[in-house]
Design goal:
heterodimer; A: 346 residues; mainly alpha; two-stranded antiparallel ribbon; 3% strand; B: mainly alpha; two-stranded antiparallel sheet; globular
Chain lengths: 346, 289
Amino acid sequence: MDLIRFYIRRLITIIKNEVLVLPSRIVVALFFILLLVIPLITDDPYFLRILILTSIFAILAASWDLLSGFTGQMNFGHALFFGVGAYGAALLNQHLNLPPWGSIPLGACGAVLAGLIIGIPCLRLRGTYLALTTLAFPIILMGIVFAFPAITGGELGLSGLDRIVRSRVTTYYITVSVMIVLVTVMWKITDSHVGIIFHSIREDEVAVRAAGINTTRYKLLAFCLSGFFAGVAGGLYAHFMRIAGPSTLEVSMSFQVVIWCIFGGVVTIWGPVGAVFILFPLMEFFRFWPEFRTLMFALVILLILLYMPQGLLPWIRDKIENVCPRCKIRNVATRKTCRICAAEMH
Amino acid sequence: MLLDIIITSLINGSTYALLAIGFSLIFGVARIVNIAHTAFYMVAAYCIYFVTYRLELHPVAGMLVGIVVASLLGLITYKIFIAPIREHEGAVLIATIALAIALQEVMLLIFSGDYLSVPPLVPGYFTIFDVKVFYQQLITVAAALLILALLRALLMKTRLGLAIRATAQDREVANLMGMNESQVAMLTVVISVALAGFTGAVIVPLTIVEPFMWLHPLIMMMAVVVLGGLGSIKGSFVAAYILGFAEALVVFVLPMGAFLKGSVALSIMILVLLIRPEGLFGIAFEEER
């Protein structure tokens, strides 16, 4: 009993001292809580469906950020991982009758393999070359999918997969909790030792190599990790939509991911997730005006970029929080002195 | 069969060469990866359709209008959307993607998603060895080669060309030597978009006009640019014909060729990159730090 009371008290202290002091952290906490209570408020299947798809794409966008944002290895073919995850899960489900909890992780392992296969040739390329080369991989795979319709279903794709679970609300809880867990894991990775090496590879690869770090290994690791998370997203998508089609490999899918990430602000993990949760429901919201939907989407992005080129969410965060000039700790913009070292702000 | 392959590869190759050279010009001078490049090609194609069928003018008038409209559109969008955020590479990248999508949607709204076609400039064909060669195909290839020659003359013989090449080599030093860097960048954007418009104009009688026609050339154009070496015009020229030939060969020889043509061409690109990471004619420059 005392032990429980101790942990509760500790939790309250952490919340008071670490979470409630910064508006951005409050927003993140509220956002997670809101996601978990939404099914209690409404169980409209259409609404839940949008949120499920949004969570799946949030995993995908965050995984792009892990690879391209952090290590700076611009990947224009992220749809490859998504598609391999989706097709892998679908093939395992249809031919071996594996249930979703088996086929999704195995499909993701297929995506890790894809990450290795494209990672090795891409190690020698950098910058724009890399971006334009990676664009080619999903298209090559799409050609193969179309060329062997007996196995892959060709243009129609593989349909009639098992549902994750029967009820919509349970599916919602499964995808949202998978999203929260995976995004937290990615955020933790980028915060760890490995994450710092990823950062430094983007900033100056030669210096990292000079410091005795095997950058090749870390770049391949980034490809594999990103492939795994994107593959999980692909498998979830295939099992939720109950179809794995060529649309998962399209160029527009790769571009979509890049748009989400840069719109939300790269090198943050939370930026892309936030951007998906803003943009994807917004797209659905424009549905009452279907023919203008994509146009409005493109225009919104063009206009927002004009005013906040480093991304929407970092821009907002910089408005409401300041960095202490002495100890580099973030503070609410309204504070006169730093909350840690009591130095004058400005 | 052989002649078919040669003609198709010449046409594909010329299209890709025109597009890729415009794309590498913009990249070299302004450091913009312009995803919307082929969207302007689509705009020019639609302009020709509009002028020829809706206004019932001569197709040549349509071509001129197409090139002018595409260049103006390129200039305006560059000034409004791209120039203010040029320092942010990522932002420019998705701005051009968004621009391409916006142009596609506008065309979809105005002309709907129907497949349209435009009559050839000179109808009819002649036969060599039992193979039909349409006059339009000859015109397309000849026009593409002519424009490529003119472009080379512009880049190598004029003062503007000198400025463009100098800026592509080193932006800061070119600026110090008294070249107005932002003006050179703007002019390059106009030249490059005009090239895209011109490509659209000469290729349109041979293809179908539809709002998604920019995607396949976009991918092939990028493959050509990477294969030939970024910023190398000779490289783009050679690589365009290599990939054009590979595509034509796959389409005519393999049974499922139409599906695999992109895959095979892109696989060739990746194989070459494994051996020469800087492309066929690219210069392996020191890492920018």
